[in-house]
Amino acid sequence: MINFISSLIIPIMVLVIIIYGLIKKIDIYDEFINGAKESFDIVLTMFPCLLAMIFGINIFLKSNILLYLFNILEPLLNLINIPFPVFPMMLMRPISGSSSLAILNNLLKTYGPDSLIGRLASVIQGSTDTTLYVITLYFGSIGIKKIRYALKVGLLADLIGIIAAIITVNLFFT
Amino acid sequence: MVNKIWGLFIITGIICCLLTGKVEILNQEILNSTKESLDMIIKIFPVMALWLGIMKIASVSGLLKKISTLLSKPLKKIFPDIPKSHESLSYIASNVVANMFGLGNAATPFGLKAMKSLQDLNEKKDTASRSMITFLVLNTSGVTIIPTTIISLRMLYGSTNPTEIVLPCIIATVFGTLGGLIIDWMIARRRND
Lengths: 174, 193
What we know:
The complex is a heterodimer. Chain A is an all-alpha fold. Chain A has one domain (42-173). Chain A contains eight helices and no strands. In chain A, helix 2 packs across helix 7 (131-141), helix 5 runs antiparallel to helix 6 (116-127) and helix 6 (116-127) runs antiparallel to helix 8. Chain B is 77% helix and 0% strand. In chain B, helix 5 (104-121) packs antiparallel against helix 6 and helix 6 (130-140) runs antiparallel to helix 8. Chain B starts with a helix and ends with a helix. Chains A and B meet through helix 1, helix 2, helix 5, helix 6 and helix 7 of A and helix 1, helix 2, helix 5, helix 6 and helix 7 of B.
């Protein structure tokens, strides 16, 4: 049901916009072209930022440095009752959406989607977004260089989201 | 901040690779990142052109203005610095709606457009404004109602109830978003801007 509604949103939105434009008697075709042209500017300013971020993140990830970190932290995590395999995902989630999705894929395959680990990982992936990507993309596209407290707030929001995910999953499924 | 983090990523990554003897992988990865970022741009570019085109029609016809007036009351509470019925409010609203329904591809162009019109209000063009950071928080806490990718992954691995995580996701998102907005509000207030 929800899936059906969600698949209707885009077509209906387009329909409403086009009809409204015709009613208001504007040149919908020309305006579409004008708007689409703006994407060149955005993409051009966006690309260097994306490249820089992907470059840095890839080197960092491929060094497996996070893996060594997990091994040190494992006893601590067991203490606060967070299943250890989910931890890499929690760390990755704000940094890279595609890697946390890859980890989720792996966890679902290994532990099953209906295990506590599978459920927790699903909820974490579903209730937070990639802070670093959003900062790079959005601020990069308008040439913001001083991001001030943006990263701090973004990461804190992620932390709250992850804590909320852990609590909700524990309440719902145990 | 970005300088330090970016530098830290690269330095620790390279040193760690050198120490563990993964020089081959390192070389590969340095070249790979160029390809990966180009792939990403190529994926985003046409989708963005399409949506910016559609949204231009909505903007010129005055539809966006209408939506933003409707939504300006609740959004005004979250964004005290944006003037009433400014067009950025309607882009923010479109972005949030698209995100809610898991339409990440459609959400990004709205988000970029929202940032652009927030930049028009910004006095220091190289520095993030308070509204921009609040918008970022709204975005990174991921207001998703239907996590389509996750549901399909869970189906793939034979979950007996792939959508059982939807409600927990919504609850966790609501608390995460609220928490994020409160922290953002507190920091902005402490900084006095």
